[in-house]
Design a protein that fits this description.
Elements (H helix, E strand, L loop, with lengths): L4 E4 L2 E4 L5 E5 L8 H13 L4 E5 L3 H13 L4 E4 L4 H10 L3 E4 L7 H14 L2 E7 L13 H19 L4 E6 L3 H14 L4 E3 L7 H17 L5 E2 L7 H14 L8 E4 L10 H14 L5 E4 L4 H5 L6 E6 L2 E6 L2 E6 L1 H14 L3
Parallel strand pairs: 3-4, 3-10, 4-5, 5-6, 6-7, 7-8, 8-9, 9-10, 11-12, 12-13
Antiparallel strand pairs: 1-2, 13-14, 14-15
Helix pairs in contact: 2-3, 3-4, 5-6, 6-7, 7-8
Length: 347
């Protein structure tokens, strides 16, 4: 079932729009707006499409609105419990508000927020979390079904006032219940879906669990925007999300890096090379494959399919392009030769 397509700032979510990647700001808003914006520009360079900020205070809503006016990507305000903060965020100019109508106060308060969003052209994300279900559903034997029922309660509020610029999320920290909830929801409703796990964990386990859950849904055609929620900096979430989309063929632009794990045969250190250059490579929107290999066994022969590559051969470093050697010599000159080849590649 094709989702509805809704605007969030100058971005579209759902319908035939590409799947988007998002992250969340992880610190209190004590920094200057210029510093925050510098970080957002960096996230955008890595492929982030929108970013969410917590707004526990009215002043936070105003600051987030100021950020939204200058941000290169849409800004989402995340609000719980106090509908006045949601109203202030909408007045301040955010592009989207994340609420749970069931915990924003009375039904009248929720409807006031939705009407204000409709008047301002602001999208709403309704967030259903498996760990904070309504009291009536907390002892439900099936968490996936319980999340669906919680979402349906919120749909009743939306439909009463005819508000449709909505994205839903049904998340928990568990893969199976999250997959079930989103699958059931997608079979019944056309609202766009934000998918991911609520608290997936540190970098390695969190990326593994998120990749499994998100990929299972995307391969079924379920999911319109994703977040890899990690106990890590936002840039790591963005990188993980973008790589999931690349691996599934859902994001074509951007450099694809293949690199060997390194072994005792290595005469070139791929780890050191990537530590030095990985971020610059991933910021590029060139559509090409880069191979970083430790020895001539893996490159250029096994990496012949790569557009550009670098490896070691004894005491020398080799740079190759489409399997053909274009430079062989000492390391620093090889790095320059690599970047010359990279820059000249029209991907």
């Amino acid at each position: 079932m094709l989702r509805e397509k809704i605007p969030v700032g100058d971005l579209f979510i759902g319908g035939d729009a590409p799947v988007t990647v998002q992250t969340m700001w992880k610190r209190p808003l004590g920094e200057t707006i210029d510093d925050v914006l510098a970080s957002i520009h960096d996230f955008a360079a890595f492929g982030c499409d929108l970013i969410r900020f917590s707004a526990p205070r009215l002043e936070d809503a105003r600051i987030i609105g100021s950020i939204a006016k200058r941000s290169p990507i849409p800004i989402v305000a995340d609000i719980h419990f106090d509908h006045r903060i949601a109203l202030e965020a909408i007045r301040a100019g955010v592009h989207k508000v994340r609420i749970n109508p069931g915990n924003i106060g009375s039904r009248e308060k929720a409807e006031t927020v939705l009407r204000a969003a409709a008047d301002a052209g602001v999208a709403i994300r309704v967030g259903i979390n498996g760990g904070s279900l309504p009291r009536t559903l907390r002892n439900h034997p099936d968490r996936g079904e319980a999340m669906l029922l919680a979402a349906e309660e919120e749909i009743g509020i939306l439909e009463k006032i005819g508000f449709s610029r909505v994205v839903f999320s049904l998340k928990s920290s568990d893969i199976e219940s999250s997959v079930k909830a989103n699958t059931l929801f997608s079979q019944r409703y056309r609202y766009p879906l934000h998918i991911g796990l609520t608290e997936s964990g540190p970098l390695v386990p969190g990326t593994v669990k998120s990749s499994i859950m998100i990929s299972r849904l995307l391969l079924m055609g379920i999911g319109d925007t994703i977040r890899v929620s990690l106990s890590e900096e936002p840039i790591k979430e963005v990188m993980a999300g973008v790589e999931i989309l690349k691996a599934l063929g859902l994001r074509k632009n951007g450099v694809r890096i293949i690199s060997c794990p390194r072994c005792g045969r290595s005469t070139f250190d791929p780890h050191a090379f990537l530590a030095r250059y990985e971020k610059e490579l991933l910021k590029s929107d060139k559509s090409l494959t880069v191979a970083v290999m430790g020895c001539v066994v893996n490159g250029p022969e096994e990496a012949r399919h790569a557009d550009i590559g670098i490896t070691g051969a004894g005491r020398e470093v080799i740079v190759f392009r489409k399997g053909s050697i274009v430079y062989k010599g000492e390391a620093e000159r090889a790095y320059k030769a690599f970047w010359d080849q990279f820059s000249s590649f029209e991907g």
